[in-house]
Amino acid sequence: MEIELSGDEALVLFDFLARFRETDRLEFEHVAEFIALNKISATLEESLVEPFDPGYKILLQVARERVAIGWDTPDDYPGPKAVREG
Question: Mapped to the 3 state alphabet, what secondary structure does the chain carry?
Fold first, then answer.
């Protein structure tokens, strides 16, 4: 899958994500950050079929596990910790 960004969008997102890594706070400083993230979200929404699959939760769980291969534990990463369900 490919997601295209303009140079400006890439720079805005780089700064947003760098600030998140440094502060552990996921807050918008400028509307451009929301717009760039929304563009990525819209592209994913148009491209993915998995969210409409009845087995979506299982597909998501398996995808998360594959993406996280190499981390010792689910909480062994910098940044805010995930909220556990139930």
Answer: CCCCCCHHHHHHHHHHHHHHHHHCCCCCCCHHHHHHHHHHHHHHHHHCCHHHCCCHHHHHHHHHHHHCCCCCCCCCCCCCCCCCCC
